[in-house]
Amino acid sequence: MENIVVLGGCGTVGSLMARILAKKGIVTVSDIRKETPLRKIFEAEGIKLDLGGHNPEIIKGADKIAVAPSLLENENILQLIKGKKIITVEDIIASCKVKKPVVGVTGTNGKTTTTNILKNILRVAGYKVPEHHLNIQGNTELIPALQARLEGDIAVVEIGTFGRPGEIKKTAKDSKVKIAIITNISRDHLPPEDFPTYINCKREIIDVAQHIILNADDPIVASFANNLPKDRVTFYGIESLKHPFEVFPEDRECPYCGKPLKYKKRFLGHLGDYYCTCGYKRPQPEVKATQVEKDKFRLNIVDGTIKLKIGGLFNVYNSLAAAAASLTLGIDPKYIIKGISSFKGASGRHEIIKEKPRIIIDYAHNPAGVRAIMQLVKEETLGKIIVVNTISSESGIEGDKEIASILSNADIVIPASYNARKASAHTKSRIIHINSSRQKIKRGTLGASHQQVKEAIQKALEHADEDDTILIIGEGGYKYAKTILKGS
Known about the structure:
The chain is 33% helix and 20% strand. By secondary structure, it is an alpha/beta fold.
């Protein structure tokens, strides 16, 4: 077997390159990092480690050198491997064929949980599902394509977008997506002027997949079925509620004529049974939930009630999407029931990390996500709701203002980020400010620093009683809260 050294193999893309190449040769990961959280994964897959620098003898003894994309323009690296045959990530994607069914999951919210529920169903049914084991939120560009090439029987890949035309289509094509799930589309994910482009970006996956799973209760997503053969599409949706959920409504326009849609029933934000005077209306779902309660529902494809370990209407929708994809893959309904009912939740999604007071971390980072988690938390909280808001919205100050308005349903709001503080005048709840939120530290979608999150959590704990819920939302909370609370 060839001796292959992967430079930058501890990184996001480099680690996946190494794991794929390990099926073709003897692989050594060489990296300047002194340690990697993937050590056990590498060792289990027979990958050797050269950490803390690049050993010249190991480089010299290599037949080929695989280089992570971030290092391809590094002059020192290029000098180090001069004369060696180089393998790029593009070489791997071109030469390593995908020989398994691939499900691609996209949408604004619910991608990660839907992906994980579907994986759980498949594992319960006895299939091996490839995992990238990376601590990242949202998979874009090269990650899904590489994950689809890892060893396994069926791949389930989450496909996000930065709103660039052609991005999802290329990713889905490189990943060889056979079945596509589109969970929902919210206008708040990007600035309003970019929303039409964002919609078209999500639609791109339809050009690649053989079969499409669409949320019938989302008027934009459902409209993607227009002009598609009926046998290419499966709709899912909620048919009836047994429990009267409080709805935080979000208006939506008809995707055909632009008039405001009317709703017979609303379930979650803009999701529901809608119609328009032009004739457009919600399609009938083939996979549907009836008699929905806080943590259980009836699924029409099986007998009996499914009990969820994690409640909330958004998790009913995520379960329905996973069930629809499972049916398309030919999975026995008994495994679908077991896979949904045994799913314990995804990290950072309604993750309960403490009781009395209850402390919940949720990655919600846009208005639609905040609406969904607030709807659930109001249902399950006996005392006060105290929100630590670490969000700095992707859609700018207008998104921050909308989130602040939604948080009027809380009792106390503690803005942890500069943007949350700036928008807090739009919250009707009691506002408690912290000193450090005057500092603007936004980096990408991260809006709050470790210090800001720490100060906000300390303030929340000072005002919380045993029956209260402290809800920590946003990427800053997801990234820092657990560490902070362990040390408190």
